[in-house]
Amino acid sequence: MAVLATFFAAISSLPSTTSAFYIPGLSPTVFREGDSVPLYVNKIFSEKSPLPYAYADLPFVCAPPKNAKKAWLNLGEVLRGDRISTSDYELIVGQDIKCKILCTKRVSAEDAALARDFIANDYNVEWIVDNLPGATRYNLGDGQANKQWRYRAGFPLGKSNSNIHNHVTIRILYQNQQGPSNGKLIVGFEVSPYSGNWLNTKMMLHSMLYSIDQGDSDLCPEDPLKVGAFQTVSDKEVDIQYTYSVQWIEDKEITWKNRWNLYLVSTDVQVHWYSIVNSIVIMLFLTGLVSLIIMRTLKKDIAIYSEEEMKDEQDEGAGWKLVHGDVFRTPKYSSLLCAVIGSGVQILVMAISIIIFALLGILNPSYRGGFVSFGLFFFVFAGAFAGYYSARLYKVFRGISWTKNAIITSTLVPGFLMTIVFLLNLFVWSKNSSNAIPFGTFFALVVMWFGISLPLSLIGAFFGQRKAVIDHPGRTNQIPRQIPEPIWYMRPRFTIALGGLLPFAVIFIELFYMLKSIWEDQYYYMFGFLSLVFVILLITCVEISIIVTYFQLCDEDYNWWWRSFFVPAFSAVYIFLYSLVYFTKQLSIHHFVPGLIYFTNSLMICIVYALLTGATGFISTYWFVRRIYSAVKID
């Protein structure tokens, strides 16, 4: 227990707390007085819709400068809808700007209606300075006496359905860097939005959308009055004047290494520990059942079956030896099983690699698109593992064309998912969202698939088919043994549904926080807890698959191949049902295409999860079955 306590403490001190997030080895950028700091515009996003839009392409904001440069985006950024480009906002180190006009934009009635629709759907704007997203502050404490500032990434495009924010006060928090590289380090990027009709009233509404210090606001243009008219957009043509102010503020509390702390939504750590304890209890319960099978029932069975003089005393309830001549019979759809298990191994290798890199601090919220980019990278190169294990299993089933099996393995699951993504992308294209995958990115994905993953799968299959065939104890009878009618609770539907419930029970609490990070634009950083839950999940899948298979064999049913896969994989069905509940209770998505995106992505995630858990259960069960039948004397 002391070892477990030390292990849990060490894991929980990893990035499962609000620790610093930066790529190891990455040096901060030091700015000096008078340097120009670029402000990048990215996209607008909303919790009410998974459809982001490129900010630079919006027809009702200031057009991008003629010399605007598109930032280089990694694959993950493109797939998550990022479209980063330079802007006309001037940020000069150390120089405050009271008020500066960016542009006066004439907005047509159609474009004004579009802006009003975005505001009604609570769209937020994402800008970037020194890799920090612009944020609005809010007080996490219980009042003015107890202020605990946190950042909400992005700032509202507008408010009250028709009032657009056409002025922003930009606050750059910095820390002085002493030493040879004397200068300033940017440790914060705050944006306070306002709405004001300068062209008609020359006054600005002195109001804030979030609870920040009133003394930090200013008037633009300078006017002693603190009242004015909102800048509204409706179904008529309107002229909007966009302005901005800049403040450089020294902050001695925030450092460059912990500047991401304010972006991380604090969650109750006790809830995560409750999830861990709940998962461990379930795992220990299953471990006890497995131990009971192996240490008592199975050990007794083996002793009875191995002693000739005790053959008449065999327990009639333990009939797993009676099917020794059929237990390794080639199952139906064996080629499909090989492909599915190979894909599951590929996903398992990918998941383990991602979690390791996340624990090392390489994959974190400051690395935009890192999870998707590295996930695709690991998945592509894990094709070698898929081909290898699929070929080894294919050889067990006496397959005659390992190359065909390798091609099926490398194309079945990716091809199915790519088809879904392509069809879904047609709907996203129709909405002109930046989340639509460009043709060039589709081409890159196809090149990665056929140029890297498929060849690696063939290479892995080549080495897999050269290995000696896996030995099975005993010989398979030529005539299949008749399977007796099972008891009601041993029917496949019941055992699969009940068995899949336990892996879901292990992860459902942590699953809530993961769904919030995916669909509510919150940063997920509990990687220590995630790794613990993942390990417990794999152990649970192993144990429940072994338990169900053992009782199935005792019931003289030797068709265990597919069931050992489906038992842990069926927990994906519960996850999908949980996502349905989450959709109705937590989200406010009311349109067809956003809802289609949600459920399609949830379906693809569940498919990937089912392959991972199913392959884990199958591989462990295959080892278990070979182990128990090799330990008895078979005539």
Automatic annotation (TrEMBL):
The keyword Cell cycle does not apply. It is found in: Golgi apparatus; Membrane. The keyword Ligase does not apply. One of its GO terms (biological process) is protein localization to membrane. Belongs to the nonaspanin (TM9SF) (TC 9.A.2) family. It is a multi-pass membrane protein. The chain crosses the membrane at residues 273-295, 336-363, 369-391, 412-430, 442-463, 494-515, 527-553, 565-584, 596-625. Keywords: Golgi apparatus, Membrane, Signal, Transmembrane, Transmembrane helix. InterPro entries: EMP70 (IPR004240). This is Transmembrane 9 superfamily member. It comes from Lobosporangium transversale. Residues 1-20 form the signal peptide. One of its GO terms (cellular component) is membrane. Its main location: Golgi.
